[in-house]
Design brief:
This protein is of the alpha+beta class. It is about 30% helix and about 30% strand. It is built from 19 helices and 37 strands. A six-stranded antiparallel sheet has the order 7-6-11-10-9-8. A six-stranded antiparallel sheet has the order 16-15-14-19-18-17. Strands 26, 27, 28, 29, 32 and 33 form a six-stranded mixed sheet that branches. A hairpin with a 4-residue loop joins strand 4 and strand 5. Helix 1 packs antiparallel against helix 2, helix 2 packs antiparallel against helix 3 and helix 15 packs antiparallel against helix 16. The radius of gyration is 40 Å and the shape is elongated. It starts with a strand and ends in an 8-residue tail after the last strand.
Length: about 850
């Protein structure tokens, strides 16, 4: 049954994939489905990519919540795009090296169920993810024992009854609770239970008191601080109910821990006839760890060390898991040890030359002072004696379990056998839970890298790429991050970006790193320690090279405070991220260099300054399309030919890029040279045409408007003009009349033999001559185009304006004609013949 739904639609563009991932992530987290969020995000990313990138259509995403899972549907408007067929000799679609079918391969691997459905207008790919089974509460039972071994109790067994409201505050406290814990009801009511409870788990791992109170049913051991400050071990049973007003409330029954049998739920199994009777559990693992066992690795490991400590009446206990190469052991759970012995700290497997230093066999350490370093984790903790036993699965070392006491000589070989028996019972369960955690980390890492790649691919700006690199690592992978860049092989590393999870510490971190020599750039991949930062910054620091195109372009430095350590899985994820980030950073560098070259070349193809003609107003507006990564084909020029005579030109070379730039440079410089040789307009253009054709394969056709202006004393000018395939120049008279100032003639770069002619025209005072490239006249909005008539209509509104105002009004009209940015270069060249009164 569907209990909730959410839908969204995404346009066929690259950024829609990230938007779809965010939509699914937010939706599932809002529904409380955090256990399956990563899988759903990865599958959605692949399917939406197929729709918006490969199919090129809108993607419609629908999330449906049911009582036990979620169904996600991705639809596109490409129904004829069916499952990829496998032809003879080809690899099947479920091949990770092929693009087609990768989303379906992931569906088959990750989803509970999936399928493809077709309609006349849509193709639907759907997948379903079921929620994992979650046992409610924690129950345990001990074996049947003889009567003489039963625990002693007072003449009257007391049961403390507490009522806890929805905020976790004590609302009722019975008489037995007053007697057991010493707190009067008037002092206890109104206090949060968390203030009274001494919860045994390490903070941040397993289930805490707040989480336990939210469960519908829970049983287990913890402590209550009495009125005298002493912690009283108790066994508790929590049950969530609704009070008379319908509000959630928790009833808590508590007894002394050695009287737990009063509340502890026995394990019951069905017998013949459907009757339920008590039965002694036969699984040694359940006897040791409790039934059912915690379903998460952290909870299982923490329960293990607590039970190991209680089993041998130890002062502390610890559990370490082996790394993949079994050369080191990683601390994963402790109890009774100082807080400095944090999780994920590592110790070598072989710490000494004798049996006390080996983690591959049981070892009894009678006095750690006599053999220092035998158990590195216990150094400087005050522990004197210890037992360590291996956790093995099929003969392979998977971890180490140990207990320790503050006095020497506490343990015997019999104690070691008891602990080894317990370790053998839990080793397989721990390894299974560890592999499950690794699989969840792998899936989370895959989702993280998908989003990281999408973000890095979305920018070609160097500074933004550096910021993204740091923001993706902090705080997900590290507490702080520093990025060093190397401009070229001869340059020293430069500290380019620093980020700390505490923004107030960024400046201080920069200052500390400035006091340390940059890390040495090395080509070897993988993380390596950077001990030089220990004194300056403190904590653990690792350096990963940024390798791109067979060159070290920088280093990614990650750091954690002294009480934390990097996990191997995090370092592997950071290494994968560094490879992606290095390529993105190098792409940004190449793009910046290419853009700078293009802009420099574009500037070289245009006049170095603003054109001027004494006695005539001149205004030029040049707009290159795109992001500056291509050299435009439009150009203009205004230059003196001889005293009293000025040449002007405006042209458009077919296409963009180096070939177009070659023709543009040839045209602009040839025009000046030929005009100053005294040649008339037709002769200038005919020789330019021959030069373009001589370029051979690089030849591009060129539209060109070329003319000469002879300013007159009265403010007017005589003009000679040749229009070779270019948009015609327009003349605006003071009365608003707009006419063409030339006739069309053949363009350049196509025919060998041109028969061009020159036209003459007198521009009177107050007249405006407007010359543009086809980026103006061919401005489009759908099927509409501005055209020559539209430009003439705009020009009629410019009567009485200066040359600068005319050019600006034309540009505004062109920009407003369509909503989308211009896709072609534009050049606008305006001349105005001033009237006598203009200078008054």
């Amino acid at each position: 049954m569907i209990t909730a739904r959410a839908a969204a639609s995404f346009d066929p563009q690259g950024r829609s994939v990230a938007a779809a991932r965010a939509f699914v992530r937010d939706t599932l987290q809002g529904w409380g489905f955090s256990d399956i969020v990563d899988d759903a995000v990865v599958l959605t990313s692949e399917l939406v990519t197929n729709a918006v990138v490969h199919a090129g259509t809108r993607a419609e995403v629908l999330c449906l919540r049911t009582e036990d899972g979620v169904r996600v549907e991705v639809a596109d408007r490409y129904p004829e795009r069916e499952l990829p067929l496998q032809h003879p000799g080809e690899r099947p679609y479920a091949d990770p090296d092929r693009e087609n079918g990768r989303g379906l391969m992931l569906c088959a691997a990750l989803a509970t169920r999936w399928g493809v459905e077709y309609t006349a207008t849509h193709k639907h790919v759907w997948f379903r993810l079921d929620m994992p089974d979650r046992p409610v509460g924690t129950r345990s039972a001990g074996p049947v024992v003889p009567d003489q071994l039963l625990p002693l109790a007072d003449s009257r067994v007391r049961v403390a009854v507490l009522q806890i409201d929805s905020a976790g505050t004590v609302s009722a406290w019975n008489e037995d609770a007053e007697i057991i814990f010493g707190h009067l009801a008037s002092k206890a009511v109104g206090r949060p239970l968390a203030e009274l409870a001494a919860w045994p788990q390490t903070p941040g791992t397993g289930t805490g008191i707040a989480e336990a109170l939210r469960l519908s049913r829970w049983e287990g051991s913890y402590g209550i601080r009495g009125a005298d400050g002493r912690v009283i071990p108790i066994y508790a049973s929590h049950l969530r109910v609704r009070d008379a007003h319908g509000e959630p409330s928790i009833v808590c029954l508590l007894v002394h821990d050695d009287e737990r049998a009063l509340l502890q739920s026995p394990v019951r199994v069905p017998m013949d006839g459907g009757q339920l009777t008590e039965s002694r559990p036969t699984d040694p693992f359940e006897i040791f760890i409790g039934s059912p066992a915690p379903d998460d690795l952290d909870g299982l490991l923490q329960r293990t060390v607590e039970r190991a400590r209680d089993l041998l009446d130890a002062d502390s206990a610890f559990l370490l898991l082996a790394t993949d190469d079994e050369t080191e052991l990683e601390v994963r759970a402790t109890t009774g040890l100082p807080s400095t012995r944090q999780r994920f700290a590592r110790v070598p497997v072989e710490a000494g030359t004798n049996r006390y230093g080996s983690a591959r066999m049981p070892a009894v350490h009678e006095d750690l002072v006599v053999v220092p370093g035998a158990v590195p984790l216990l150094e400087a903790t005050g522990m004197r004696s210890a037992i360590t036993v291996p956790l093995k699965v099929e003969g392979r070392l998977t971890g180490s379990l140990g207990v320790a006491a503050e006095v020497p000589g506490r343990y015997s070989n019999d104690d070691a056998l008891r602990l080894q028996f317990a370790a053998d019972r839990i080793a397989l369960a721990v390894e299974s839970a560890r592999l499950g955690e690794l699989e969840r980390l792998r899936r989370g890492s895959l989702s993280f890298l998908v989003e990281a790649s999408d973000l890095l691919a979305g920018t070609l700006d160097r500074d933004q790429t550096l910021a993204l690199m740091a923001q993706m690592t902090v705080p997900t992978l590290a507490t702080w991050c520093a990025v060093y860049t190397i401009a070229d092989p001869a340059s020293d590393p430069f500290l380019s970006y620093v980020l700390h999870e505490d923004e107030e510490r960024i400046d201080g971190l920069k200052a500390l790193l400035a006091q340390v020599s940059p890390p040495e750039p090395v080509r070897e991949s993988g993380a390596r320690p950077w001990p030089e930062t220990s004194l300056a910054v403190g904590g653990e620091t690792v350096v990963l090279p940024l390798l791109a195109r067979n060159r070290v372009i920088g280093m990614l430095t990650l750091g954690k405070p002294s009480e934390e350590h990097f996990r191997q899985e995090i370092l592997e994820l950071a290494e994968d991220l560094s490879r992606r980030a290095a390529l993105a950073l190098d792409n940004a560098r190449l793009y910046s260099e290419r853009t700078a070259i293009s802009r420099s070349l574009q500037r070289s193809l245009l006049p170095p300054g603003s054109p001027t003609i004494p006695g005539i107003e001149v205004e030029v507006i040049y707009r290159a399309a795109g992001e500056g990564n291509e050299v435009g084909g439009d150009f203009y020029d205004v230059f003196p030919i001889r005293p009293g005579v000025y040449g002007f030109a405006i042209g458009d070379v077919c296409g963009t890029g180096p070939e177009a730039a070659a023709v543009t440079g040839l045209a602009r410089h040839a025009l000046r040279l030929l005009a100053r040789e005294g040649l008339g307009g037709p002769a200038v253009l005919e020789r330019l045409n021959a030069a373009i054709l001589d370029e051979g394969d690089r030849s591009r056709f060129l539209t060109l408007l070329y003319g000469e202006l002879h300013p007159q004393p009265d403010g007017g000018a005589h003009m000679k003009v040749v229009c070779a395939g270019h948009p015609l120049p327009l003349r605006l008279r003071p009365n608003g009349e707009v006419t063409s100032a030339a006739d069309p003639q053949p363009l350049l770069g196509v025919l060998d033999d041109l028969d061009l002619y020159e036209q003459t025209l007198t521009l009177d005072p107050g007249d405006v001559l407007l010359c543009v490239t086809d980026g103006v006249t061919e401005r489009r909005e759908g099927t509409r185009m501005l055209g020559d008539d539209g430009l003439a209509e705009v020009l009629t509104t410019c009567t009485g304006l200066t040359a600068g105002a005319v050019a600006s009004r034309v540009l505004r009209a062109v920009e407003r004609f369509a909503a989308e940015p211009a896709s072609d270069d534009m050049a606008i060249l305006a001349f105005r013949m001033p009237r006598q009164r203009d200078g008054d």
